[in-house]
Amino acid sequence: MNDFLPLALYVHWPFCVSKCPYCDFNSHVRDQVDQARWRDALLADLAHEAAVLPGRRLGSIFFGGGTPSLMPPETVAALLSAAEAAWGFTKDIEITLEANPSSVEAARFANLAAAGVNRVSLGLQALDDDALAFLGRAHDVNEGLGALDVAQAVFDRVSFDLIYARPGQSLADWKAELARALAFGTEHLSLYQLTIEPGTRFATLAAKGELTIPDGDTAAELFETTQDMTRAAGLPRYEVSNHARPGAESRHNLTYWRYRDYAGIGPGAHGRRGGMATVRHKKPENWLKTVDRNRHGMQSEDVLDPRDRASEALVMGLRMREGIMVDPSWVDFAAVDRLVGHGLLTRTGDHIATTEAGILLLDSILPTIARDI
Ligand SMILES: C[S@@+](CC[C@H](N)C(=O)[O-])C[C@H]1O[C@@H](n2cnc3c(N)ncnc32)[C@H](O)[C@@H]1O
Ligand code: SF4
């Protein structure tokens, strides 16, 4: 257990202006949101976590979505003061909010910063108008870059997301787009390859043969070029899709990958704290009704046995470039050494890490090396 380490808090805001055709996040479009009711319900869900997790300090808070930049800044401010009163903040607390890069939202950035947000993660997604239209985004490149300018003026720390390996995107196109992105000078970038998620509009199109993403070899080539260019620009990969200037990594996300404690509140939020896995009701209306009834939105709270904890720690740890110290009782070192021989892992004593080739095969590596404990 890691009671002495700072705690992380995740807050889920499930609403979006429209649903993007690739997205399977817990995000919903609603005509009306009763803002006072949502603020009070999130405060109640937070108070529940604070009551079961006393004596911890918060080292990071992450407002994710959905589109948390649609939250009223007063709700963000109310949650931050309740969190500080309940737990206390470390001196250098990181408070991130995910934002869509529209001009309407950019106009609220100053108020969100005044509420205490000190890091923003902006969903630019592409630097090409046709690609943005294909991704079903409400903004074009100009509007997105306008929002990036405001974000860089207002927040201490700025990151943005791009989706690459899009249908028909050539290596030369991606190199030009990434070079432009790196020139904006942010300290952090999240670069995701487009994945077709079950249940999305893109999955329907892909099933009908109307949408094809690059094959494995092309995707690998795009990934390797991404690594070369980001490394040369001083923003090496520190996780599968995340790049940062050393020291500017997302502390909140490192908490997940280093398998340390985090509390999760709001619809569908997951938590891992005190050896328990917590899950909130996913559908916004069900979560709200549960909070009305119980003063928290919990759907399930399960004790994780050592085997679950070990495999979760492996899955998370091997996503990071820094790798993971493993316990010989839950890892099969003979299997690890075979994968070292194939150039997929590195090992020094009890420390293992994935190579770039290994990252591309991460899902197939893990079952091979975890012992049956
Ligand atoms: C919760 S979403 C971002 C929040 C914000 N609403 C937005 O769209 O900008 C987190 C990020 O995951 C990425 N993402 C979501 N679905 C994806 C998919 N199917 N393939 C690749 N990246 C995806 C996008 O880059 C997105 O910005
Ligand atoms: S990508 Fe962002 S804006 Fe689009 S539906 Fe998903 S959470 Fe909402």
From TrEMBL:
- State its cofactor: [4Fe-4S] cluster
Where in or outside the cell? Cytoplasm
The Radical SAM core domain extends over 1-236
This protein's record includes keyword Transcription regulation: no
What keywords are assigned to this protein?
4Fe-4S, Chaperone, Cytoplasm, Heme, Iron, Iron-sulfur, Metal-binding, S-adenosyl-L-methionine
Q: Name one Pfam family in it.
A: HemN_C
Transmembrane ranges, per UniProt, are none
For this chain, the family text in UniProt reads:
Belongs to the anaerobic coproporphyrinogen-III oxidase family. HemW subfamily.
What function does the entry list? Probably acts as a heme chaperone, transferring heme to an unknown acceptor. Binds one molecule of heme per monomer, possibly covalently. Binds 1 [4Fe-4S] cluster. The cluster is coordinated with 3 cysteines and an exchangeable S-adenosyl-L-methionine.
Which PANTHER family is this protein grouped with? COPROPORPHYRINIGEN III OXIDASE, RADICAL S-ADENOSYL METHIONINE DOMAIN-CONTAINING PROTEIN 1, MITOCHONDRIAL
Name of the protein in its database record:
Heme chaperone HemW
The lineage, from the top, is: Bacteria, Pseudomonadati, Pseudomonadota, Alphaproteobacteria, Sphingomonadales
